[in-house]
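Severity: low
Component: inverse-folding endpoint
Summary: output formatting inconsistent between runs
Steps to reproduce: submit the following structure tokens with default settings.
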């Protein structure tokens, strides 16, 4: 009775589409439905803060899959439809038009949304979020007219927007409440490097400064007021203040939720036959010294690998998601590539010269490589992913010595590191 046990996926983006694709690849034959509340066919998000704003990426380059992919794989896309309620006991999901979908398996791939900005003036025209394609089109359109923009929040997305706007000749101020940019992600020397990159290219950086209010002129934003009373004139404000996981559907259904939907290493939630992956999932990690018990990652890799684990589970093969995390950020002419969990590290080692804009920062724990941040060194990033997975061991001196061949380090699985 195949039709009685469909896989229903809520969220038509990376995690949802990868799950559907992997389930078909692994031989899942029953019906697959993906419900997505955006009207666009699934698309890539990284270019929204990069190439789409500089003009290097065009709209026709955004689709996540080719035009025939969904039909060929018998994946039904219900776009512009929102899942409003989950009844985990009855195994059904109710959509905003009243339709009820019964499921054999349900996957919540609802991602994240921009953290609300609630200060006075937040509703003025020209104050824009950036999460969806529609958001990005608004920012791109505003970027064509603006002379002077403020970016609130100096995280990866805020800094990508700042670099894209600078590349268009816009005067940009980035306002960051923490004393340093990317202070949670990077060690102080790396934060200082990023700050230098932006300042050298003409971005005004105001760190350790809060925003008190936004002020308008005839309904349109005209200035940002800082907590010290200083006003920065601008006609565009882009918000990059982080995201919140879209976990309400799970929460209202009584599933365990704590900074996202709580899942085990297989992607199982606290409700039978309900799974979750991607930005919304707070996933258990295998025990490792210094590692947190669980982590909610916001990256394409985590969404795709999490989804592959769900697909395996659905076809009966339990395959824990233990992939080494990685993600990237493009700012000006620099490619930042990050892998592993830096929080595990107890020693930080620089390899290369920061002044050359080509280097890596490695994190060791008790001599084992646990994370690496590379700038304009894609080959070293790729190798680092393998070395972290293989638990390669180094001394700080070896890592810092550019003549030392990283592939020669002892690992518990050398083939994995050198293949
Ligand atoms: C501007 C930008 C740039 C980025 N750049 C990078 C990068 O360079 N590298 C990188 O690794 N990552 C990057 N990311 C992060 C990456 O895009 C996310 O990690 C990834 O999109 C997560 O995929 P997901 O499928 O979990 O969720 P999402 O992509 O957030 O998709 C979830 C979808 O579910 C929908 N949805 C939510 N609730 C419901 C509901 N109840 N019913 C129906 N639909 C619902 C949402 O509207 C959304 O369409 C970037 C993100 C943004 C916004």
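Observed output (run 2 of 3):
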């Amino acid at each position: 009775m195949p039709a009685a046990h469909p896989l229903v996926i809520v969220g038509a983006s990376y995690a949802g589409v990868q799950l559907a694709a992997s389930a078909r690849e692994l031989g899942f034959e029953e019906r697959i439905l993906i419900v997505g509340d955006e009207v666009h066919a699934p698309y890539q998000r990284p270019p929204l803060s990069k190439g789409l704003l500089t003009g290097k990426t065009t709209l026709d380059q955004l689709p996540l899959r080719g035009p025939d992919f969904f039909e060929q794989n018998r994946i039904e896309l219900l776009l512009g439809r929102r899942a409003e309620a989950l009844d985990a006991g009855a195994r059904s999901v109710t959509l905003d038009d009243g339709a009820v979908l019964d499921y054999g398996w349900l996957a919540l791939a609802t991602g994240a949304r921009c953290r609300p900005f609630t200060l006075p003036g937040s509703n003025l025209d020209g104050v824009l979020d950036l999460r969806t394609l529609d958001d990005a089109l608004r920012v791109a359109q505003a970027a064509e007219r603006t002379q002077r923009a403020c970016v609130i929040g100096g995280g990866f997305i805020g800094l990508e927007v700042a670099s894209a706007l600078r590349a268009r000749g816009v005067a940009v101020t980035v306002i960051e409440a923490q004393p340093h940019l990317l202070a949670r992600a990077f060690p102080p020397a790396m934060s200082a490097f990023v700050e230098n990159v932006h300042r050298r290219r003409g971005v005004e950086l105001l760190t350790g400064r809060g925003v008190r209010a936004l002020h308008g002129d005839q309904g349109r934003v005209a200035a940002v007021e800082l907590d010290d009373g200083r006003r920065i004139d601008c006609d565009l404000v882009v918000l990059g203040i982080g995201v919140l996981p879209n976990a309400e559907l799970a929460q209202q259904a009584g599933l365990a939720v704590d900074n996202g939907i709580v899942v085990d290493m297989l992607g199982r939630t606290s409700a039978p036959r309900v799974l979750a992956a991607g930005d919304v999932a707070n996933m258990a990690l295998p025990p490792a010294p210094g590692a947190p018990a669980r982590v909610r990652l916001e990256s394409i890799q985590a969404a795709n690998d999490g989804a592959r684990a769900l697909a395996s589970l659905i076809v009966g093969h339990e395959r824990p998601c233990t992939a080494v995390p990685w993600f990237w950020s493009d700012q000006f002419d620099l490619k930042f590539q990050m892998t592993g969990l830096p929080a595990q590290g107890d020693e930080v080692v620089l390899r290369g010269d920061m002044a050359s804009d080509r280097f890596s920062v490695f994190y060791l724990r008790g001599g084992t490589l646990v994370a690496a941040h590379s700038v304009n060194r894609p080959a070293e990033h790729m190798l680092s992913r393998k070395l972290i997975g293989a638990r390669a061991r180094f001394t700080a001196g070896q890592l810092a010595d550019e003549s030392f061949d990283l592939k020669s380090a002892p690992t518990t699985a050398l083939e994995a590191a050198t293949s």
